[in-house]
Amino acid sequence: MKKWTKYLIGAVSAAVLSFGLVSLYYRGVAVKGSAATAFAETKTAAVSIPQDSLKVVESLQNAFRSISSEVLPAVVEVDVTEKKTVTPSPFENMPFFFFGNPNDRNRQESTPREYEQKGLGSGVIVRRSGKTIYVLTNNHVAGKATDISVKLNDGRQFSGKLVGADERMDVALVSFESSDNTIPVAVLGDSDKVQAGDICLAMGAPLGYSQSVTQGIISATGRSGSGIGNVSDFIQTDAAINQGNSGGPLVNIYGEVIGLNTWIASSSGGSQGLGFSIPINNLKHAIDAFINEGKISYGWLGVSLIEISDEYKESLGVSNKTGAFAAQVFIDSPAYKAGLQSGDYITSLDGHEIKSVDQLVREVGNLRAGKNAEFGLIRGGKSVSVKVKIEERKADVAANDGKTWPGFLAVPLTDKLREQLKIDDKNVKGVVVSNIYDKTPAASLRLQEGDIITAVNGKRITNLQEFYSAMDLTKTKSISFDVYTNGGTITTSTYKIK
């Protein structure tokens, strides 16, 4: 079985960037100058091709040439330098400790050391304002750079400035100054129109080979997962993408940018036909936000969302429904103030269907603070509508798990879990405690993972729907649980939400 790994493609790893990048490129040049040249001189006899077929192929070839010649001048190489600090292990180079004073050696080796990490990625020119030219790229390419250089297709290099970067979306905007009005700006397309099977071109500087173009098709849209950020929505393509392509454009047959190449899934570290790009429609507002404010402002609802299995849906009473499950609600958040509950299954936002957690996270993030948004949801088996006044997302508040209610994930007590927990008594019914967060109500009540909640405020519960219905904070702010643990049932102390 092959092991698949997700790779950011803006630059090679830290070790290679610091110590092996130049030698890697030199090795490439050496090969290109010897074996590759010899192969290039080998010619084969022309074959007979029907003229009608040849015209079709020539037409396609000319189209690719035209697209490349139009777009490549707006594609740039982004060279970056980052300053890194490492603290070496005091036991590094252990044999040398036998010479001189070991204590002095410990102090020396434990001192933090700063070094420079060089890397490269790609970018695409998306806007001009007077002499200022703006380049869109990835956050993991330029977001932490202390020095940025932008190289154009004609070889000219300009000192770049980071205008803004956003780790959550993995996007950054870099600017440089030039009075040359002939430097082109790429045309941004409509990524909502992209479909599987569409022809596309990926452009950039893979492994430092600037102005490279590869061709493929759109394999899928709406893909999730990258290991970076948490706004997950990608176009998948089989166009060859490698390290160094990050920040380069994915282009349609009309020469319009439809995506920003970001990562690959690979078992080797190189292209295996699994490249992923951020849809350009998800990034258009980021350009304006960076230029006007230097950052992206996100709307905040105040819930923790998770994808749930069919088995979980059945216990919750939402089988065959698409949506996003609110596992936790942040106390004093917009959701909490509006009466949105943990256990709610959100199915729509402002009248349009929600099909996944990624979609809801993205769409809530795009809402402006002060917006009154209407959420359709299922609660206790019934359809409910809740209006919430969206606030601006603050990173420190949104990351504070200690303010979540109830502070743990309840899961259905399945036959498999009964077996794992060694519960033979079929009369024991309820939900199982899992994933307890520190400094939350669940932690203060000393719940343990694997405990079975059999009642809430004295009311017996048998499934998730009954559990969350009994946890309705619009009806009570005081909660206690009956918990089956270690072969017996105990009642927790009462937790009061202020």
Automatic annotation (TrEMBL):
<dbReference type="GO" id="GO:0004252">
    <property type="term" value="F:serine-type endopeptidase activity"/>
</dbReference>
<feature type="active site" description="Charge relay system">
    <location>
        <position position="246"/>
    </location>
</feature>
<feature type="binding site">
    <location>
        <begin position="244"/>
        <end position="246"/>
    </location>
    <ligand>
        <name>substrate</name>
    </ligand>
</feature>
<feature type="binding site">
    <location>
        <position position="170"/>
    </location>
    <ligand>
        <name>substrate</name>
    </ligand>
</feature>
<feature type="transmembrane region" description="Helical">
    <location>
        <begin position="7"/>
        <end position="26"/>
    </location>
</feature>
<feature type="binding site">
    <location>
        <position position="140"/>
    </location>
    <ligand>
        <name>substrate</name>
    </ligand>
</feature>
<feature type="active site" description="Charge relay system">
    <location>
        <position position="170"/>
    </location>
</feature>
<dbReference type="InterPro" id="IPR001940">
    <property type="entry name" value="Peptidase_S1C"/>
</dbReference>
<keyword id="KW-0378">Hydrolase</keyword>
<keyword id="KW-0677">Repeat</keyword>
<dbReference type="InterPro" id="IPR036034">
    <property type="entry name" value="PDZ_sf"/>
</dbReference>
<keyword id="KW-0645">Protease</keyword>
<feature type="domain" description="PDZ">
    <location>
        <begin position="305"/>
        <end position="357"/>
    </location>
</feature>
<keyword id="KW-0720">Serine protease</keyword>
<protein>
    <submittedName>
        <fullName>Do family serine endopeptidase</fullName>
    </submittedName>
</protein>
<keyword id="KW-0812">Transmembrane</keyword>
<dbReference type="InterPro" id="IPR009003">
    <property type="entry name" value="Peptidase_S1_PA"/>
</dbReference>
<keyword id="KW-0472">Membrane</keyword>
<feature type="domain" description="PDZ">
    <location>
        <begin position="387"/>
        <end position="464"/>
    </location>
</feature>
<dbReference type="Pfam" id="PF13365">
    <property type="entry name" value="Trypsin_2"/>
</dbReference>
<comment type="similarity">
    <text>Belongs to the peptidase S1C family.</text>
</comment>
<dbReference type="InterPro" id="IPR011782">
    <property type="entry name" value="Pept_S1C_Do"/>
</dbReference>
<dbReference type="Pfam" id="PF13180">
    <property type="entry name" value="PDZ_2"/>
</dbReference>
<dbReference type="Pfam" id="PF00595">
    <property type="entry name" value="PDZ"/>
</dbReference>
<dbReference type="GO" id="GO:0006508">
    <property type="term" value="P:proteolysis"/>
</dbReference>
<dbReference type="InterPro" id="IPR001478">
    <property type="entry name" value="PDZ"/>
</dbReference>
<feature type="active site" description="Charge relay system">
    <location>
        <position position="140"/>
    </location>
</feature>
<keyword id="KW-0732">Signal</keyword>
<keyword id="KW-1133">Transmembrane helix</keyword>
